[in-house]
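User: Earlier you gave me the apo prediction for this protein. Now I'd like the version with ISJ bound, so I can compare the two side by side. Same sequence as before, with the ligand SMILES added.
Assistant: Got it. Here's the input I'm using:
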Amino acid sequence: MSEGPLSIATDLPASAPWCGPASPGAFRLHTPSERLDAVGCLARLPSGPTDTLGARVDAFFAARRSGPPLLVGALPFDPHADDALYQPERVGAAAPGSRDDGACLRPSAAVAEPSEADYAAAVSRCVARLDTADAPHGLHKVVLARSLRVEAAAPVDPQRLAARLGEDASVTTYVMPLPVAAGEAPAWLVGATPELLVSRRGTAVVSHPLAGSARRWREPARDAAAARALLASGKDHEEHHHVVEAILDTLAPLCSRLHAPVAPSLHATRTMWHLGTRIEGTLKDPRVSSAHLAGLLHPTPAVCGTPRLPALEAIRALEPVDRGFYAGAVGWSDADGDGEWHVSIRCARVQGRVLRLFAGAGIVAGSEPALEVDETAGKFRAMLDALGIDDLRTA
Ligand SMILES: C=C(O[C@@H]1C=C(C(=O)O)C=C[C@H]1O)C(=O)O
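And here is the structure of the complex with ISJ:
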């Protein structure tokens, strides 16, 4: 192991559960087409805010002396907060545990924080803050989230939970060991996202934002009607348009070619319909890395709102629970600048027996509080199904 600023973090003990040689905290990122598993931690990237990510990753690979030419990790939602990336010891899955699957996942209690009524009230207050004809150029969209605190009967195994989430072949499942204070139990971010923030392979760049959503139904006719209504919804197209516009504006100066279809298409997971747009570009400068691109794009209006800073302020004022690494990004970057960053939604922070689930919805002028409560309930469904919670009675 090399000495110097980029070897094992000095601000965390070497045994810190999220990043140490003996770390059981295996990283997982399984997309519909590729699998990345990594174990252990050789070195931690000095943490920092999102806008310095590209420079920190470049410096890391310029100085690296041994180990896999790879960084894996997570960006928090708040672009001013510290991220968590590290160089794994080895790429490949850890040996499977011997835990009893069922006992790990049986939940015993769930508490909505905020309550559905308080979330609906926050949506109303948010709508009142949005741009109006009388006050143009203000806030156009804010993504407001709520959370569920679930207690399981026994400690939850993050890898088993991710495997259950992966029964939906349309999503990207992930497990990321999270930074915790000294002496705290290990914690993970575990989820199943349908949304690609950005990927870069050579000069080829892809982003696949989703915004505008409807929950799915078991009965085929009702499910098809929900999809048709989403495709016809002006409010959802507006939510979507803000995201595509922001991503195109960010990528345009960096690309010699940039393409997005004129209208979004339907994107399905097992539990939700979304409007999605696949954006493809060619980089002018091959030295612009995936970490650099993720640092520029995050947080998009799909998880934050637009304009970005007033939307961040509204979220701070209206959400009672800190998002942490929910609505950030999970992914990897390699020494060639290639990499892939997925939006960390449809997830839970898992620590021992306690899970905190998050779900958010885009609020624009005309959003109705009760419908946003329902949409976020739909977005919890994938995780609740994986936990075996059919009928959610929150305290
Ligand atoms: C914020 C979430 O999802 C995001 C918000 C969406 C929307 O408002 O329609 C759709 C997909 C995601 O970009 C979430 O799942 O928690």
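For your comparison, keep in mind: Confidence is low (pLDDT under 50) at residues 1-18, 20-24, 98-104.
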